[in-house]
Amino acid sequence: xRSQLLKTGFIAVxxxxxxxxxxxxxxxxxxxxxxxxxxxxxxxxxxxxxxxxSYQRWWYGKEEGYNIAETGTDIWTSGAGEVYRDLTQxxxxxxxxxxxxxxxxxxxxxxxxxxxxxxxIGQAGLSAALRPVREGELRFLRAFYYWHxxxxxxxxxFTTTETSGIVTTANKTPVETFYNQIFEDLKIAVSxxxxxxxxxxxVTKGAAQAFLARMYLTRGMNKEALETAKAVLDGNxxxxxxxxxxxxxxxxxxxxxxxxxxxxxxxxxxLNDLANSTFNPYGHGRGxxxxxxxxxxxxxDRPGMTRDITNGRPFNRYMPTRFLLDLFPAEDxxxxxxxxxxxxxxxxxLPAGIAKGDTAVYCTKLEIADAVEASKKYQTYxxxxxxxxxxxxxxxxxxxxxxxxxxxxxxxxxxxxxxxxVFVIRLAEVYLIAAEAAxxxxxxxxxxxxxxxxxxxxxxxxxxxxMQVKAADITLxxxxxxxxxxxxxxxxxxxxxxxxxxxxxxxxxxxPDNAVNIQEHxxxxxxxxxxxxxxxxxxEFKQNAGYQ
Length: 548
Known about the structure:
By secondary structure, this protein is mainly alpha-helical. It is built from 22 helices and eleven strands. The chain has helices at 35-40, 42-54, 63-69, 85-88, 98-120, 130-153, 175-192, 205-218, 222-233, 291-294, 322-326, 334-338, 370-375, 383-386, 427-440, 444-458, 464-467, 476-487, 493-499, 503-510, 512-515, 529-534, and strands at residues 16-19, 24-27, 76-78, 259-263, 318-320, 339-340, 342-344, 359-363, 379-381, 401-402, 422-426. Helix 6 (130-153) runs antiparallel to helix 7 (175-192), helix 7 runs antiparallel to helix 8 and helix 8 (205-218) packs antiparallel against helix 9 (222-233). It is globular. The relative contact order is 0.15.
């Protein structure tokens, strides 16, 4: 039986190529490569490094990654179309979960590729100038993948050695060992990487510093987190907050100066990662960025509405908790910049009194008087239509819809692939990292100062003063609330709640549908059963506690 732990780097990867004319990382599948070619020529080694980037696409912009990183938290619960309720609502979560199985397989394949590249870079024939840069990239990527692994599954298999062929054993390694390697790799990456890269999508010095600050915060190394976040903020990298929060999510603004690190998807969808039996047999079954599908409510069966490109293809997977919607005060433009509440008639068959372009459906977090609702020609779904009095879901088909990731540039209304890049680290997050680290070191005034930079940008016109917070307002729960307002949907929330020790507490307090089955052992995920079945040292490599 072939182990699911590690895949040989040259048989089971989609290789990326660099197209300098487009100045971006794009995917293709060259043939005829052998490991000797890849490791011992500069051209071959370039394909190895580019392939190491490609595994990020299995998490970022994919349903598996969203379910693991965003759902099962205080801010999202299951829509009617949810397929991984075991992750979102902890309903008999076990090692059979296919999202976890897929990510485990791909992340360990990525680790193997990074290990091989790091250990054999000296034989690749790279120039003296290029070698440290490529090592820095591989070091960053190994740290990046290992962070996802260790936070998701805890102290599981760890190695820095390349493996080829069949693997039949696995080890259990302390979490601290993972982080020691993560910090070592990231420090080398920071030292080696340039401030800018010639190809968009490659990691830079600023990105490595920002991710290192996130790692310091994760491990409670708050002094180091603050210093490293400040190095990014004061580093003259050219990063800049968008003046308008909503502008971040325009398809015409994917290369915003606010974005520090991104997983990029090509506008030519054929160059992305959709599985193809001939050219890309190890690709993803849906391919490219799918976020635009996942958060949309079911609108296309409502009177006056039909599915179109503008409103998207509604998979209806995830809906906001009432708690998330209530986090945004009236002065905060991030609500309108993140959610849509109105759908406008677009069908050739229209209800009486409604013309094309008129409001057809209105879903709001507010309560509307029954008499007012009855007076409207369009359909309304207000607070008490969507949620019960205790915050549990009443209607998981209609709700305010996260609009951040919608893509009206798709070629057809049923197109599942989007060319939208995934923003992995934004400048706003670095300000919030600095704020949390400052708070943890006792400087509440400085923490408030960092938060207020983000909240000033978030304020509606003329409301900046009302959005300011004081030192006395800064608590860990406030920081988590602010991160939800700023970063909702950006594949961070589960990690935020876990690292702060707040996962179970806040789910029980704010997400009643997710709270029914949540237990303390859910702070790590179950090891995939396929992995447990494949190893021969079953007495040593066992399932995580609490799972069958």
